[in-house]
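Supplementary Methods. Inverse-folding protocol.

Structures were first reduced to a discrete structure-token string of length 139. This string, shown here, constituted the complete conditioning input.
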């Protein structure tokens, strides 16, 4: 099934839904990586019912290792780069994630009656596949 527009299909979902997943959809990880991430979420939920879990995907930044930096490095060394086009997701800036975390922390500090605890998807707007993302990076 096409997991298009779903930033979390490889980790938390099996890709069987047509369209984007929402936080309340059932989880069904396909591999060890996804299962371990889900186990971490479940442990955090069990340890503290007043939790906020921010699920994200395809994170990029000028720091550390990530797809954007890899594509730029490969482009400097090669005339051609092959990139798959069968996986869809939402590229997400680490700066946007950091900004969201700071916003959430400020909200929690200011609102002692905050009750909207739970799981939230935090991903970039719009979707693409790895090949499309690579083309955008190289443009």
């Amino acid at each position: 099934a096409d997991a298009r527009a779903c930033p979390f299909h490889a980790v938390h979902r099996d890709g069987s839904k047509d369209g984007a997943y929402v936080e309340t959809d059932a989880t069904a990880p396909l591999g060890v990586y996804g299962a371990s991430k889900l186990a971490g979420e479940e442990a955090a939920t069990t340890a503290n019912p007043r939790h906020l879990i921010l699920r994200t995907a395809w994170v990029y930044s000028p720091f550390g290792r990530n797809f954007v930096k890899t594509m730029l490095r490969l482009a400097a060394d090669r005339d051609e780069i092959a990139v798959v086009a069968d996986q869809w997701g939402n590229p997400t800036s680490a700066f946007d994630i950091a900004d969201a975390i700071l916003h959430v922390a400020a909200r929690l500090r200011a609102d002692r009656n905050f009750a909207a605890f739970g799981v939230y998807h935090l991903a970039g707007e719009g979707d693409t596949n790895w090949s499309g993302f690579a083309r955008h990076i190289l443009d």
